[in-house]
User: Fold this.
Amino acid sequence: MEHPRPQKVAVVEAVRERLATATAVFVTEYRGLKVSELESLRRELATVGAEFKVAKNTLVRIAARAAEREGLEPLLEGPTGLVFSGADVAAAAKRVRDFARANPALVIKGGLLEASFIDAAAIARLADLPPREVLLAQLAGALTAPMANFAGVLIALPRNLAYGLKALADQRAA
Assistant:
């Protein structure tokens, strides 16, 4: 492109910025979906801090090269929609997967997690992860369990000593 139109430059810059800042990017094909269905997907993704963007493949390729995310290029065939995820990648993957189950016209092709390529199966595995809050609670439980057990042992020592002394005193009194 010798003299690109300002609109195309703006799209490339917006996609490049999102590619550079997103934790994960999922590439989908939306052939056959109605505009109202795409809006529904956008609303679903917004609840978890993700967004769905449609852009021309050639512009996405240029943006991907500029953001050093060339791993997306093989996926850019047909009508392409990009899902940009923030911190909660599992929640975004779950929303996209659930929407694709309800609307088979949406096909998940693959994407990038950080800078690593992931296929559709990996995105499905991400969607199967428990929510972030559950994972944090499990981690907190795993960290506190040994401390709670140790505290129980420390409390049991003087208690058992007291029971033993009481039993000895009762035995001598009898």
Q: What stands out?
A: Residues 132-173 form the longest helix (42 residues).
